[in-house]
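Exercise 3.2. Students should predict the tertiary structure of the chain below and write it as structure tokens, then compare their answer with the key that follows.

Predict this chain's 3D structure.
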Amino acid sequence: MASNRINYSPQLYTGGNKEDTMVYDVSDGLTRFTKDFLAFNMDSIEEGAERLIRSGLDTKELLSAAQKCIEDVGRKFENGEYYLPELVVSGEIFIKVSNVIKRHTNPANETKKIGTIVLGTPQGDIHCLGKDIFGVLAEANGFLVHNMGVDVPPSKFVEKLEETGASVLGLSALLTTTYDPIREIVLQLESKGLRQKTFIIVGGAATTKGMVNKLGINAQTWDAYEGLRIIQSLIRDTEDAS
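Answer key:
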């Protein structure tokens, strides 16, 4: 049986003596990565992520580990153990990790994109973690993602859909204040004749099945991985119908 220990020349990021060749254990490295993330160690997290991928860890496994860390921080925030600074720093760390993942996944996907997604948080909300997790997942699976950020006015989403020809619009909403902006997005798409050409998926704590039914939205989820599966299924169904 092959060992999961592989030779790796740079120094282990866990410290130790400098040597020309070190034995790097991916499992131990992933454990250290998780500890660094949850300790908000900004200095070593990017190097640790890079080393894990170069040592053979699948980018999806690394993304899953980062998401679990984000979820842990989120739970502690909701329980009052953490406050806004911890939440903000964890988001910055996740972005660092996602940038490493993008460097290793985008080159392989440059030649063939399986679909285009416009993604963002509607006006009235500035939360981004769920949106960014979904965006990284989608890019890692071959989608071209236009991430518009947070607090985005309805007209900007419509303009980006027109500009890019994207067939999917992903909206992340943690606050109920986003209901009216989402409704306005739907109305503007209808007025421009784009509604039937645009698959709208919403996610986040403020989204419900009732919202989907009332506004005529195509899909709703509270999970980034499920959201990706929904979009992948849409693409497959579209290809089968063509």
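Discussion points: The radius of gyration is 20 Å. Residues 1-21 have pLDDT under 50 and may be disordered.
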